[in-house]
Specification:
With 168 residues, the chain is mainly alpha-helical. It has seven helices and four strands, in the order βαβααααββαα. α3 packs antiparallel against α4 and α4 packs antiparallel against α6.
């Protein structure tokens, strides 16, 4: 079964593949009884199902693989193309409804949308400050826009350059 969201209390360090490092850590802190505001993670299933529904996963993979880590102009071009692909996606209905239901369960007030990429902030990498964070997000439509913008930020030029440098 596809799970498009996961509540913090459902997450643990074993959840990194679906919730990213930050999400998994929020789960660990919640389970430990620390004062973490209620929240949820939009999972990798939501992201990947969106890429697949829009038919862009293979193109993103190709652009990333072909982007040179040492040519800043070519890297900027590849990054812009990847960000444009992501920015143009429409979250599929099933994922959008799961996110909207979770948002409603939180009370539909102001929330933060932050990255918790699966390769972000691991034992060997730190993407601190590279992905977009949106605070004071109000309303379902704005929430969906900010989720997509957060996904697009994972393809920014600095992020791609850093990923490439870590693979060497």
């Amino acid at each position: 079964m596809t799970s498009y969201i996961a509540w913090f209390e459902e997450l643990s360090r074993k959840s990194i593949a679906s919730a990213g490092g930050k999400g998994a850590n929020l789960g660990e802190m919640t389970r430990a009884g620390l004062p973490v505001p209620p929240g949820f993670v939009v999972t990798t299933d939501a992201f990947l199902s969106t890429l697949d529904a829009c038919g862009i996963r293979t193109e993103l993979q190709r652009l990333f693989a072909d982007s040179p880590g040492n040519d800043s102009a070519a890297l900027a071009d590849a990054s812009a193309r990847m960000c444009a692909l992501i920015s143009g996606v429409k979250i599929p209905t099933e994922a959008r409804e799961a996110i909207a239901r979770a948002y409603a369960k939180l009370g539909s007030g102001a929330v933060a949308v932050r990255s918790s990429a699966t390769s972000e902030d691991t034992g060997s990498t730190s993407f601190a400050g590279m992905h977009e964070t949106f605070t004071n997000v109000n309303g379902v439509d704005t929430l969906m826009q900010r989720v997509v913008a957060c996904w697009a930020s994972a393809y920014g030029q600095r992020v791609i350059s850093y990923r490439k440098s870590q693979a060497m």
